[in-house]
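Quick one:
INPUT:
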């Protein structure tokens, strides 16, 4: 695929020159927690459809997809048109409603199964933080139970036992970052994923303190067993605990109704971002009106009022992009084609892995997929830690050199724009990477 015509960067600098600048002004020459080895680190220039190009003109099949936000691929015409049109009307309003945010809110309430109301936020991390705050305010309890290895964002309450070096010692969690107050760690309880027996034991002992159970329906690449999510719902009902489903990744991705439709489960609250946002700064909390209603600004000064505020809440450009994205996702056959591509990709990738005697499995749930160095679908974080993560990162790094954008050791995504050519090129690159893997 040839690179689409794009404007050159203002200084037209090479990747080497840009990294020299980044090394001086950015920590680790990065934008977050990912730091690629020098031989595979890249600075991207632009994207179109399922492909991306770096500033030196090299082309890559994109399986990162903006961490899952770009479900329609890069620069989808409908999304670009909607965002441009809104920019001309106004890029940002604050303090009052804008018409696009109102229309999107109505649509989200209609389309998210558990939604009676929604409240806007800016990022997925912000949405999960607000959801925890709402749960504490509504129940009058201070603790949240999460599952080991779950990623609920970047705030202090979320990064507890998200990246554990070893498992166990439940329900006590461990801080994942320096600078994290002990008070945040002490208010989080931790349980192994897909383990209802342990969950019941922890809740039975601590239920008087638990405001909510917070769960991802697909934890990284680990799918929830159907009875697990339904078991959480039953436990929450028994002890008057709120069930919060983190759909920042899975919302409008597993299917139009997200994981709630996929698993036929109804949480009290769900958090949404990535697809909700259209690639822009927008997220939301959806669910019960009596819980979300605590953020009503008319309640300021009253018992139970829960503070929500953000400069970009309900941003009209992101709202317009989201509306356009949902229009595309609502068309017949979109999810069948996208999830079908992931199925073909993993099935045929497994054949390549087996042919080269690589001890790995190609796993997917819907359009989320990854190559894992283990012999079965993981059930929890202990399974992940027991896998050969060094070999996984090694193969992924080789795939980067074959023109596939995959963050080493990280889950990837299929978009609606991946096609037969991408599949052929991916399998060809995997074959070459496997040969190199076995030689090294």
């Amino acid at each position: 695929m040839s690179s689409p015509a794009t404007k050159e960067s203002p200084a037209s600098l090479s990747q080497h020159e840009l990294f020299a600048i980044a090394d001086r002004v950015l920590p680790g020459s990065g934008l977050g927690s990912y730091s690629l080895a020098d031989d595979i680190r890249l600075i991207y220039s632009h994207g179109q459809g399922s492909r991306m190009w770096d500033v030196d003109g090299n082309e890559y099949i994109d399986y990162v997809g903006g961490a899952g936000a770009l479900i329609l691929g890069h620069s989808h015409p409908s999304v670009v048109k909607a965002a441009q049109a809104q920019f001309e009307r106004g890029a940002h309003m604050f303090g009052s409603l804008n018409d696009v945010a109102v229309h999107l809110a109505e649509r989200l309430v209609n389309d998210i199964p558990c939604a009676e109301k929604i409240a806007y936020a800016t990022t997925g991390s912000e949405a999960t933080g607000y959801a925890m705050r709402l749960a504490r305010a509504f129940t009058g309890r201070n603790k949240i139970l999460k599952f080991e290895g779950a990623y609920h964002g970047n705030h202090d309450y979320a990064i507890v036992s998200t990246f554990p070096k070893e498992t166990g010692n439940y329900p006590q969690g461990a801080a994942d970052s320096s600078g994290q107050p002990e008070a945040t760690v002490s208010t989080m309880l931790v349980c192994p994923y897909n383990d209802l027996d342990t969950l019941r034991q922890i809740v039975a002992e601590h239920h008087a303190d638990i405001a909510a159970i917070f769960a991802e329906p697909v934890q990284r690449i680990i799918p929830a067993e159907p009875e697990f999510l339904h078991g959480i719902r039953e436990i929450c009902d028994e002890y008057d605990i709120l069930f919060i489903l983190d759909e920042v990744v899975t919302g409008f991705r597993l299917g139009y109704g997200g994981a709630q439709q996929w698993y036929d489960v109804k949480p009290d609250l769900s958090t949404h971002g990535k697809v909700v946002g259209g690639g822009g700064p927008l997220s939301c909390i959806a669910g019960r009106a009596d819980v979300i209603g605590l953020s009503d600004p008319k309640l300021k000064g009253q018992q139970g009022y829960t503070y929500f505020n953000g400069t970009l809440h309900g941003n009209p450009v992101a709202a317009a992009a989201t509306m356009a994205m949902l229009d595309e996702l609502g068309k017949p056959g979109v999810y069948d084609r996208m999830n079908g591509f992931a199925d073909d990709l993993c099935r045929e990738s497994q054949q390549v892995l087996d042919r080269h005697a690589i001890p790995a499995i190609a796993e997917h749930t819907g359009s989320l997929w990854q190559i894992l160095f283990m012999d079965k679908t993981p059930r929890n974080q202990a399974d992940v830690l027991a896998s050969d993560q060094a070999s996984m990162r090694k193969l992924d790094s080789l795939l980067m050199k074959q023109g596939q954008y995959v963050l080493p050791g990280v889950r990837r995504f299929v978009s609606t724009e991946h096609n037969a050519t991408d599949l052929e090129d991916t399998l060809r690159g995997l074959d070459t990477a496997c040969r190199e893997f076995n030689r090294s």
